[in-house]
């Protein structure tokens, strides 16, 4: 039997809700940011109504995991404003793209969407490398330290060089050579939000030696532009966000 998340019977509900921005959302994940960080950021900058739901200790494997499509989180549950329609989505990348299309963060044209997708893919690749070589090496501290040196020496500077260049060369920027805080056009996009998350992780990991206003003004402008959004500031001021940030630091080494 097809999993309920993938049931074609839900197509009409998805098609109806796809363009609705007044829905309510539940982000199902463990009690930290992790793979749900960008999802919550999208919802926060959009001013959407959402709650974070984490399985109680000891209940994930026996009670919840068997019922998820792939045995992993995050999952997103969306309910229409009138409560009559409910849809569920799994996998962080799919959720991020669904929400970004809903709230207008995938560009205004097919070309802009392609540009955004390319920058998102590049940022995701950098994040995957960080997770594999550094964040996931919690049990092998010697290897983690060695990998960190390699990342700082080559991988991270390469990512910085390319992204600083592309941000600085955004044709829509009218503020000189340091870009306008966006990868594509003059509007917030998923690429900006992925970079915002990545920059924060890198600064927690290596400090300000490689990413700072003097060396990387265009990258810093992305971070500052996202951080200035009032609804994101409000979310980050909540006790829920602060508690997840602390658990994130304890588990993964960054906020």
Description:
- The chain has 255 residues and is of the alpha+beta class.
- The protein folds into two domains: 4-103, Glutaredoxin, CATH 3.40.30; 110-229, Glutathione S-transferase Yfyf (Class Pi), Chain A, domain 2 (Up-down Bundle), CATH 1.20.1050.10.
- The chain has helices at 11-17, 37-46, 60-64, 92-103, 110-135, 141-168, 190-206, 217-227, 230-236, 239-252; strands spanning 24-28, 49-53, 75-79, 86-90.
- Strands 2-1-3-4 form a four-stranded mixed beta sheet, with helices on one face.
- Strand 1, helix 2 and strand 2 form a beta-alpha-beta unit.
- The mean pLDDT is 96.
In DSSP terms, counting alpha (H) and pi (I) runs of 4 or more, how many helices?
A: 10
Sequence stretches where pLDDT stays below 50 over 5 or more residues: none
Number of domains: 2
Kindly state the number of beta strands: 4
Shape: globular
Largest sheet: 4 strands, mixed
Radius of gyration based on Cα positions? 19 Å
CATH class of the largest domain: Mainly Alpha
The strands making up the biggest β-sheet line up spatially as 2-1-3-4
Stated plainly, the CATH topology of the largest domain is called Glutathione S-transferase Yfyf (Class Pi), Chain A, domain 2
């Amino acid at each position: 039997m097809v999993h309920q998340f993938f049931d074609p019977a839900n197509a009409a509900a998805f098609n109806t809700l796809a363009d609705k921005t007044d829905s309510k959302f539940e982000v199902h994940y463990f009690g930290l940011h992790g793979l749900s960080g960008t999802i919550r950021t999208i919802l926060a900058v959009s001013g959407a109504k959402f709650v974070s739901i984490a399985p109680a200790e000891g209940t994930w494997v026996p009670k919840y995991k068997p019922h998820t499509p792939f045995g992993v989180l995050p999952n997103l549950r969306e309910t229409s404003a009138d409560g009559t329609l409910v849809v569920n989505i799994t996998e962080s990348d799919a959720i991020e793209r669904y929400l970004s299309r809903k709230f207008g963060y995938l560009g205004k044209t097919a070309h802009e969407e392609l540009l955004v997708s390319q920058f998102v893919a590049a940022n995701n690749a950098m994040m995957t490398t960080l997770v594999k070589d550094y964040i996931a090496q919690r049990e092998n501290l010697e290897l983690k330290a060695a990998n960190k040196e390699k990342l700082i020496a080559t991988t991270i500077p390469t990512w910085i060089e390319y992204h600083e260049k592309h941000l600085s060369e955004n044709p829509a920027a009218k503020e000189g050579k340091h870009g306008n805080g966006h990868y594509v056009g003059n509007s917030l996009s998923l690429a900006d939000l992925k970079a915002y998350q990545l920059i924060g992780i890198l600064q927690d990991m290596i400090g300000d030696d490689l990413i700072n206003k003097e060396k990387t003004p265009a990258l810093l402008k992305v971070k500052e532009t996202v951080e200035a959004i009032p609804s994101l500031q409000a979310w980050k001021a909540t006790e829920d966000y602060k508690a997840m940030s602390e658990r994130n630091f304890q588990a993964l080494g960054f906020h």
